[in-house]
Amino acid sequence: MVDVSTATTGVTTATGNSLSSAVQTGSLNVQTAQTVSANVAASTTLTVTTNAGAQTSLTTAATGNASDAGSYAGGPLTGTVTQSIGAASNITADSSIAASAAQTGAATIDTQAIANSHGITVQDTSATMTVNQSSAGLAQATGGNELMYTPGTASMSSSAVSNNVTAVGTGNANQTLTVGQTMTGARTQAAEFDDAGNAQTFAGQATATANNLAATNETGALAVTDSQANAGYLRAQAVVTSYEFGTGSASAYGVGNSVLVGNSGPSMSLENTQANTSGVDAIASFTGNNGYDASANATAMGNAVTAYACSNCGGVMTVNSNQTSSGGVSASSTTTTTAGNRSVTGAATAVGNNATFYVSKPGG
To answer: Residues 55-60: what's their mean pLDDT?
Structure first.
């Protein structure tokens, strides 16, 4: 329970297994296997009697398996990474503010649950890595916040990912990546429930992704081969209410399988295989009485892939992509106001398979 005039900050983290490896001179070969068969939970609760201060910042993160490997102007990075989550494992993050009769000047609330995550970073060298991730468990992030009044910006977000790989190459880096991701658990779910009496800017966002791969490169060659399969239910839901508001918004984004591969250098190749066989739901709802701008946006996709290369560098992009979506994909958006408002908007987009490939100049 707090009542302050300056600021309130809280950080809560829980991790099953964690490994970090890096080299600055010489080469690095990483061979690692991580397994979680129990629950991993992180929870934050803030109770405010009168005032939480000029800024309230809460971060809550639960991670099953986490690892990263990097070579910074050293020798080549190589290796094989295996991460798995058991069927009895729940990876959950929960965050809430109880301030129905209190205020804060502004707020940033982030809630995150990730079952498996691996990061690759190389600078002026090469990476040849194989990453295999599987989750038979549950990844769930939930945020619930009540505020009487905030004169600033209150931004609240929840994100859940079952399998995640991020690779970044800078300088004269070359990357050759092989990634396999499988989600067979009960669900991947992100939910945000936020309520205010009077708020200047009040925004709630929920993002859920079963399998996610993002690989970028600056100068050298980038070659990625990936296989993603999601058989678990996926749900992203944002429910936001504010009786009086300047700007009020709810945003929900849910995707079964997601791939981003981009090279600002001349050469990029991608072999992409994605299969989504379960339901994907995105639900966004904003309700208010008197205000200015109200919006609710929901996007649901079974499979999504984006790849790009540099046109100014004589860029060559080679892509083979196969996407299959046999689960139901649904998006719902609701915006409700009961008094006069300047603008009221809503959008709902549901796509089974989405693919975008392009070449452009850096920054363009």
So the answer is: 97
pLDDT at 171: 92
The pair phi, psi for residue 268, each rounded to 5°, is: -140, 130
Q: How confident is the model at residue 339 (pLDDT cuts 50, 70, 90)?
A: confident
Task: Kindly indicate the confidence band of residue 304, based on its pLDDT and cuts at 50, 70 and 90.
Answer: very high
**Strands (E) located in the chain:** 7-23, 28-36, 40-47, 55-72, 77-85, 90-103, 107-123, 126-135, 138-170, 174-183, 187-217, 222-230, 233-263, 267-276, 280-310, 316-325, 329-337, 343-360
Name the residue among 65, 165, 160 with its Cα closest to residue 111. Answer: 160
Asked if residue 221 lies in contact with residue 265, where contact means CB atoms within 8 angstroms, the answer is yes
Nearest Cα to Cα of residue 81 among 29, 6, 43 = 29
Which has the closest alpha carbon to 208: 183, 233, 190? 190
Phi and psi at residue 209, in whole multiples of 5°?
A: -140, 125
pLDDT at 362: 60
118 Cβ contact list (under 8 Å, min separation 6): 66, 67, 68, 69, 81, 83, 131, 133, 164, 165, 166
The residue count for the chain: 364
Using CB atoms within 10 A of its CB, is residue 340 exposed (0-12), middle (13-18) or buried (19+)? exposed
Least confident range from 3-12, 30-39, 111-120, 331-340: namely: 3-12
- In angstroms, the CA 255 to CA 235 distance is 9
> Tokens 């971060």 correspond to what residue?
59
